[in-house]
Amino acid sequence: MNRKEELIVLYIDGKLKGEQLEEFEKLLREKPELYREVEEQKKLKEVMDMIVLKNPDRAWEEYWKSLYNRIERGIGWIFFSIGAIILLTYGIIEWIQAVLKDVELPMFAKIGLFVFVFGFVVLLISILRERIFVSRKDKYSKEVHK
């Protein structure tokens, strides 16, 4: 931004004082092209001041603040979780029965599979429990969305 543009902005914003203001107003009277430029900048500033931008994040925050939407989402997660638990339990039971009935699979491999699956389930539950606990207690995770 050159000095002329800087003075125009300061003039329009009402920040020129004393001698600077008097000098600039004298230049406005003497130079019609400067006067026209200042008038154009004033019009542009008026238009820009009328524009109000709505932050898209704010719209989403307002949506989620609604009690109905929070309840709706909570119920959806509950049903999803129950369905997943039922399906996983059924699948694990069927898998266990199939492994136990398989006579060709050595006992060592059966024990290894069960220990592997049990360890995986324990780790999965531990991670989920930790995530839930941290998300409820961590004040910074909520501030990231703001």
UniProtKB/TrEMBL annotation:
Claim: Membrane is one of the keywords in the record: yes
Source organism: candidate division WOR-3 bacterium
Keywords in alphabetical order: Membrane, Transmembrane, Transmembrane helix
Transmembrane segments: 74-93, 105-128
Source superkingdom: Bacteria
Name of the protein described by the UniProt record: Zinc-finger domain-containing protein
